[in-house]
Amino acid sequence: MKQLYEDLWVSAPEFPTSDDEPQLIMHGFLLQHVRGNLLISRVEHPEDHQTIADQGGIIRHYLTHWHEASPATQRLQQRFNSALYCHARALGQVSHFAEADATFNAAEVHCGSFHVVPTPGHTPGSTSYLYASPYGKTYLFVGDTVTLSADRWVTILVEESNESDLRQTLEFYRALRPDVVLMGTTVGQLAWQEVDVRQWLALLDEAENNILDLRQPLLHLGSG
């Protein structure tokens, strides 16, 4: 794991086996919270699991959508006795890998300051997490709802996506003011990006104008 900020780490890059998308990269994030460490998204590498242990373990693991569930999800749950959280509409798919301890279907505040915000569109259960760090930056964990693909900001439609919901989520994002955007999956890019208000609104414009429809044959995330 690499430390990004005083209270935030990013996992080593994971390259899922994919002949179609050899540059697909997945990451997870360890957030140090006063109530206990939180894990967001997907973390597969055993070395990262040891880093989590060295940092005091985790009390909760949050998925941004079911695509992040993996064999390591249950291993983390068992090793750290941590609670697994996901949106109620992701539960069925997540349960193929691990049993969730709790679900949500509306905006909530957890641990006093960790904002759980359903942002459907990419998947019905897609969720973002917003946290104002006491060290001065506001983090927004977006999963795959917006992401970087070959230097472009994009948003992605898959078989279960709803384009109308996705556009509403992008509009909702415009009211937020993150300092750092953190992505679970990118193509050939880092998993985080610092932004100011102008940059944030501009990247949302770019993503909305670059909707990659993976429901169409032969069209992939890294396509030009």
UniProtKB/TrEMBL annotation:
Organism: Erwinia sorbitola
Keyword vocabulary terms for this entry: Hydrolase
Domain Metallo-beta-lactamase: 85-184
GO MF assignments: hydrolase activity
Pfam family, one: Lactamase_B
Key word Hydrolase present: yes
Record-given protein name: MBL fold metallo-hydrolase
Matching InterPro entries: Metallo-B-lactamas, RibonucZ/Hydroxyglut_hydro
